[in-house]
Amino acid sequence: MAKPRIAVIIGSTRKARFADKPAAWLMDKVKDHPELDFELVDLRDYDLPFFDEAASNAYVPSQDPRAVRWQQKVAEFDGYLFVLAEYNHGMPASVKNAFDQDYVGWNRKPVGALAYGSMGGARSLEHLRQVAVELQMVPLRNAVHIGGSEFFKVWSGGQNAPMSEIEGVLQGSLKSMLEELVWWTKATKAAREA
Q1: How does pLDDT run across 27-51, given as a tens digit for each residue?
Q2: Whether 73 contacts 84, CB under 8 Å
Q3: Which residues cross the membrane (predicted)?
């Protein structure tokens, strides 16, 4: 039986983003996961317009082929982890727009994050969780947060150290998040297939 599939979505589309560094670290940590398969999905690769459909795809099929392509990608997965920046106490507009471009594909699937910023991306993650609830998703309680001195140690605007220098601080939260992701992915997948 195929393992459930999880998208690791890079949420920032900025040229100067930090996201690539923690995304590479996360993908390395999950590459041989015994219960889940992970795929890196970069929002930069989808050229999504700002949401401009007649209504949510829960009610009316989307017309823009870029939105339809994104919906097809979202539907491939059983759960999601966002590599999530915090911009002005919230999630990047690119993430909110990616959520808005689909409704059906997100339903009844778990979502978590590796969040980063001076406060560990905590406010951004709370914003994401609020939107996820409206999309009938299951926001995970556990998350990985890169904040404070750890963020400034690995961020390119700080010391630009390798992620290995802070991974000891992140390992416990990563383990907890992945255990929770496995449980919710199996539970929601079984319920959707029942």
Answers
A1: 999 999 999 999 999 999 999 999 9
A2: no
A3: none
